[in-house]
User: Fold these one by one.
Assistant:
Number 1:
Amino acid sequence: MSITIKGLSHYYPNGKRALTDINLEIPSGMFGLLGPNGAGKSTLMRILVTLMEPSEGQIDVCGYDIRTQRKEVRRILGYLPQDFRFFARYKVREFLEYAAALSGMTNSAERGKAVDAMLEQVGLYEARDRYAQNLSGGMKRRLGIAQALIHKPQILVVDEPTTGLDPEERIRFRNLLSEASSKDTTIILSTHIVGDISSSCTEMAMLNQGQVMFRGSPAGMLKETEGKVWRLKVTNEQYAEINRKYAVISTIPNGLGWDIQVVAKSIPGYDAVSYPPNLEHAYVYFMEVKDKE
Amino acid sequence: MWIGITNIRIVSKYETKLLVRGWFFKVFAFLALFAAVILGSMYILSQYQQPQMVNRSVIPYMFMLIMNVGQAVVSVFLASEYLKRDKQLDTSEIFYTRPLSNAEYLLGKMWATLKVFFILDIIVALIALIMSLIKYGFDLDYVSYIWYFLLLCVPTLVFIVGLSTTLMLLLNNQAITMVILLAYIGVTLFYIDNVYYYLFDYIGFNLPMLKSVITGFSGLPRLINHRLCYLLLGIGLIFSDVSLFHRLANSRYSLLPWRIATAVFLIGGLYAGYRHVHLFKMDERYRADMVELDNRYVHTGGAVADSCLLSVTQNGDMLDIRAELTVSPRQNTASLVFTLNPGFKLNSVDAPGHQMNCERLMHLVVLDFADSLPAAKPIHLIMEYSGMADERICYLDISADKLIENKKALSMLNIGKRYLFQDRKFTMLTPESYWYPRPGVAFSDKSPEWQMSYFTDFQINVTPNPGLTPLSQGHCTANADSTSFTFTPESSLPSVSLLIGDYHPKSLMVDSTLYTVWELGRWDDQFEVLDSIRDTIPTIIRDQRRSMEYQAEMKYPFRRFSFVEVPLHFSSYKRVWTSVYEELQPEMALVRERAFDMGRFQFRNMKRQWSGGGRYRRGNNNMSEKDILINILNNTIYFMMESGSFSGSGGRNGQFTMTQVDNPYFYRPMFYNFRYNIYSSDWPMANRMVESITGGDVSGSQNWMRRMNGLSEDEKALILMGKYDFDRIMSDPEWEDIADNALALKTKDFFAPVSAVLGYETLVDTISALTMAEEFANASFDSILDWVQSYSGVSLQDKIDSWEEPARLACYKIGTPQITTVTTDTADIYQADVTFENISDNPGFVNVEFMFYNIENAGDEDKPKSMVVSVGAHETRRLVTHWFNIPGNIRINTMLSSNLPHDVNLNNSDWSTYEGTDLEPEGVYTLNGSVDNTLPGEIIIDNEDGGLFSLSRPLRTGYLSKWIDKSREKNNDFIYEGFSDWRTFSQWTLVTDQNLFGDYIRSAYIISPGDGSQYARWSVPVNVAGVYDVYFYASPALYSNNNRNRRWNNNNNNNNNNNGRRVTNDYNFEIEQFNMSDHVSMNMWRADEGWNLLGTFRFEADTVRVTLNNRSGIRVIVADAVRFVKRER
């Protein structure tokens, strides 16, 4: 395993619990960390990238203890923070060079070549002499992934990377990550966008309120959700009652009432038809149904 | 602890880019470079060179100092901005997750800040260097550029960057951090100054750092220690940032070494700071111990050194000296005490034919003899000593505050003070260093006996280090190979000095006197400029010498005179007990290197300035080059005839204080002090007293100075003398500027009973004659006293007995002088009557001097024009004198009195003139009754009349103003303030002036014009109902400087006040009784000096209130006195 997390808990100074007894094993490849805002994803990410020290528990990153061997962990780590928008007055190439140099690429000629290659790879070569703060949102995010990958890290942590990107940039970004994961790099992708996971990750975990709700593959998650997604036609009065009792995930008006989709173990008393789940249904199942059990 | 230099370098490289791209740094860099160019144009490239520019370290010092202050401020912004940005930019986190350590990251950032400023410093230094090369060629002090960079810029920047980042990390708020730091910088620059010996001056703004070309820095080890203090503290603070930085360390224990390093550097810095203060404190304690020791021995074993043979061998830095002395005890004694510099180790003492025990106590050599030594019987002593002279013995009488007081060049460059020099290349030992044993102690604050000095026959043999030339007093002979020199003065001297250095002479023999300029090293030759007037120089010297001798009424007594170059740090102080400054030594004047502070000696520069026109030419644009050079040389030599200059310091609301600054090179000691010596075992100040009365007193201030300062120095001295023991006035450092005046007044008063009998001029002539009869010898003051007393028949015993007590000040009312013209058969005779009434319980003396406009006619008056009149307590006396010419002025000096002004100069507008037929015999008459300048039925209320005069409350209400005023309040002996054209008076201010009205204090309250809300009120008690003329006492002299100004204002009678309302040059009065009020205006430009009629009014028998408000267009409102004169029906 690339990363092993055992009994990880974290409390903020005000006593608020951010993570509770997290146990995870993260293998090589693209690993998705799914969960709503405030689930503890970013806290877990920041602990993994050595920006925060956990209150309890152990984390082993490629054989290094994250508490005592931060330097070694940092050496094999690439990180793209959640908000990656505000830059100092560096040009694109300078910024990447700085990041590369700090990651141990001390030979300036080699560093220069690597930087240029990376800029080509992320499609920023033409923009290399522009000030980074003047780039568009998508370009900034690409520059972000470039700095995270410039030193060919074994572990890449990306926190909510596609938030705010247009569909084209999002696809482009996912492809960049997929490309990176094919080079024996463990990528931890933290997101609340289910589509990011479904399109890229082979393994995933789902967090809610600081706890792991699910650990497995997206397929496994779908499997657990099979038979829990229902489709039914209801009147206005019925809709109100169902909406109060179950997790309604879509509503379409049909003239007489509503065609709705509901995630629930069963809906007794209604003429509900089982429906094949997708990852969003699974996400709702785990958040709204299973979590409340 | 492992840190990767590569990582630091990388961080620093990229952070530097950020810094230089910031607008803040760009603006600062531009301003710095711009300032450097402007500064260079002003000081280096300018045609009009400041004299100080001859010292080539002035430029790097000035440039680095100004840069340093600027960057100390700017670096605060940049350093805190750094961390603020780290906090704000989310992209910083990607750097935090890199494998570099906290130390590497932070040190990289700090180094980036330091680097950009250092580079800027170097660029500015290069600008200065290039400009200097253009102007001065290669004759530069290159090393000083590095020194000032290291001493000023490096510690300041490291400290302030460390402090600002640490504060930023602790407070986590950029605004608060900057407010704290900028306040700290402001306090350092403008308030702390030399507190704790400059300890808090981290910028080095006030540290004395000017470098001498001859001897380098003054006190370099202490300077380095001071700067090291801030460098270490700065490094410690930067290291502390590694621990305080909000980023997880690479490993659990990686911060420990930095915490230890922080502690080590901070402790090191604090220790250096402690050491800095400790060394000064130790010096002070050592000096205090020396004074304590002197106090113990001040009365022990007084003696006179009749002869002194000094054999000096220079041995590297050290001196080996053998002193052979012949001393005569002043009284029978078994002990003799000598003062010898405590730095010298006393190797042996021998008194052939006598058994004795020698004790070396700090700076004293105490010899206890087995048998008592009879008074005046000479004894032979041999002392051998060696070592390095210790500077701490110098100026024991000068306070520690005064010693550390800033001495600045060009208003910003602080110059260290040195009093002696001793190293292998240059040695300077003046008498102040006690480089040879002198009888008595160095200084005592318990008894003035230490002040006595005597003439001694000196001879000095010197063997200097190879290649060096020694200088001292007397005729110099060298041995065959010029390795040993002997100095033999032609006469006894009060002291000798020794200078050894790489001296090169430029000599000229004029009328059997050898004039020499001794230069150290070979500077650019200033004297080449004078080549074209080489033949004229002897004539110039001869003429100037004659002028000096004419002014001194004495001949120059020595066969040689030298200007001797010494390092610029050489400093001296004004002493209460002598008018001699250490700059003047018998036969020589010590001039600071390359005439650093005496532009008149820089002939090249002077020539350039004269040739360029400007103020030097004063309209003589057709002067030939020769004329210019002759003028320059005359001007240069003439400076020795100037007793001093004036120095002003500004204050609040345009307040300006003038002080008289002595010229330490004033020629008189050369003619008098090194030639005559009056001594007295009972009167240690005898020499100074005689010097004062025979013409050495150059104290006293002029009337314009008195106006500015509020009181003259004499008046201040009198106020103090009335309150405190004389000894305290003479010893309190706070009053050292006034001590001279106190002594002169005391001396005049001491001899006043004799002056009243013999006449002041006769007294002075007699004392001068008695003094000068004993040339180069020790004359007894007691014999002068005996002669004076026997000749005049006046006993001075009372004065002697009460010498130390506070002065009993008299108060005089001075009657209006009368001049009566009596026509006789042969000529018109003018009889002058001046009357004085002493209204105090203390007897006193008044000096009256008659001055004549026409000097030629005044020659007819072949009698003393200055006379002293004795006026007993509550006695009225009248002085009657006859003159062939009408006096131009009568100057009345009330000597030891409370009168203000103490010196009144009356002219024809102040006296009454009459025609008469009979002359009264000349003399001083005692009158019955009092001086009464008032008329019958007249009531005068003056501002000094307590309850009858009142003022409005000040307008100030702002808390800040109140607080500032309160903070400035102090217990002041001097309540009267000065006034000047540019000063504003926001509230009523008490001033004195001879043009004002008063019985014995001629004072008034003044205020600047305003809206009329401020007023002065006289409450006049009218006892008899009737018709009264009401007068106001006007003093146009206070608001009108000259007639032209007055006429102009007269024609333009209306002005606008601040509110745009039309106001006039009137004073506005309300005259009020029983709620009936009359408004009276008086045009003050048309007012006469003295009483001016406001109007005629009928009053009942009750109080009348006269109110003057401050609504006027005139420069100042003067509230002095009102007069009511009852009209007879």
Note: The first strand of chain B starts at residue 303 and ends at 315.
Number 2:
Amino acid sequence: MEDTLMTYINAFIVGGIICSIGQVLIDRTKLTPARILVLFVTSGVILTGLGIYQEIVKIGGAGATIPLTGFGYNLARGAFKDVDKYGLLGAFTGGVRAAAAGITAAIVFGYLASVAFTPKAKR
Amino acid sequence: MAEKSAGNRTVKLKSHVSIVSAASIVGPKEGMGPLGRYFDVIIEDEMWGEKSWEKAESKLVKETISKILNKSKKSPADINFVISGDLLNQCIGSNFGLRDSGIPFLGIYGACSTMGESMIIGSMLIDGGFADNVVCMTSSHFCSAEKQFRFPLELGVQRPPTAQWTVTGAGGVLLSNEGPGPVITYLTTGKIVDMGIKDANNMGAAMAPAAVDTISTHFKDTGLSPEYYDLILTGDLGAVGKSICEDLLKREGFNISERYNDCGLMIYDRKKQDTHAGGSGCGCSATVLAGYIYQEMQKGNLNKILFVPTGALLSPISTQQGESIPCIAHAVSIENR
Amino acid sequence: MVQNIMTKKEYQKYAESKSPKSKLFRNIIRAFWVGGMICVLGQLFTNLLKNMGVDMEEAGSITSIIMIFLGILFTGLNVYDELGRYAGAGSTVPITGFANSIVSPAMEFKSEGYIMGVGAKMFVIAGPVLVYGILASVVVGVLYYLIK
């Protein structure tokens, strides 16, 4: 029971820290949101390549996998896995294979939502 | 020197050019603002029964010109020119809004300074004897402007405190060579000024130098002092641009602070309506002029106005290519005689 | 002429000093707690799935799918933009924000039709994330192959 509670606390803290880094970048640099997202996903890939992000995931759980850096972590880990299995070809198949669920879900739900909903003016 | 010019860049009109009618239609947010009661129509929702934001903006244009004509009891055949523009690519707000009007049309682009540009051309057409009646108008729409210049409406992004809020609204005036009403006396056309500001979220700071340039030139050309006017009114500098404009003009020797305001600060209650630095967009200065200013001038509460719409002449492409923002401001003197 | 008073460089510095800055501390607190809570929600789904006997890998994928679904649903209901206005990076950085960046242009450009509107604009913001994410994963994969 206590262990489960700790997973939530850790997810909250690690996820909160990663989002706060994003907030500092938004408020204190001239980077556009698109650039910040690209920075996050590539940082995730690189940190995983260096073997660092795996440690963050061990501590933070969903707090590390839910932010976009976790998407990068997923891509990199997929590439490693497929390289182990298929050799060099795996570098080309692994990333997208690992991210397939997320990308497809975004397209399918995104499409359905765009059919069902219309944007509203902010006031 | 040309017969009707005063100084370098200012035109001094010789004949009678008066504003005989004015109308404005705004969105719900503008309607809830401090100037709400001055607008002719406040639409209930931004789509206004149309299928897209762009169509809604065209409808604003169409309904505004028909209001202007109705109020002055003129028919489209009485109007020699309509001069209009907006923020959308190829100015489709005006083009489609006026396609059924049957009035000779001059489409212009001056970003948010369009109302000034339109009134300058319109006044000169009348003074030159080329027209009896000219409608000068412009429009902007928060949603269509966001879509073209920024992000989709439903994207969850924060606006920095220097960002401004595009006004949903169309406003216009009917200029005529006869009839009562406030008259137009001087026109100072702006130069493009670019002081190297690149942040598209800080248009006020980008546009302020253009306003300073035009206002100080206006005083030098005409020999008038700021005290001559009851109100000097910039278009949409917002909080940041207004304080810069005031400060720089002081350094140039013109103290305008006691008689200075900005349409972008007047149209919204910034604290309650979360509009950050204030309003912007072509419709901002146009609706404030056609609503509040025109009515207060008719009542005699305001008698001498220097109206200075300001525009940022950027595009999403120039911003992405790292260009700085060229800006412009035009000044129009409007006086009760 | 403003150029007579100060140079462009001086003006940019001056304008900077005149422009209010974002309230960083307040924004960080908001980003922290909202971002943290979104991750806690993700952890909740992962834990539930694990308790149901789903294996670690699959639980992760299913969690992403659920979170993306929620991000898209709340975008469609016109709520996610309000959340973003409050939380900033707290709602942009989690995967729900990625979903928001896909569906919001799709909805916005529906007026230009389902092919060139919805279809073409869907990845106008999220596209770069995929491009650079996938590029980076290939680079890392190739390096791993060479070093291994």
Note: The helical segments of chain A are 2-28, 33-49, 53-60, 62-65, 68-86, 89-116.
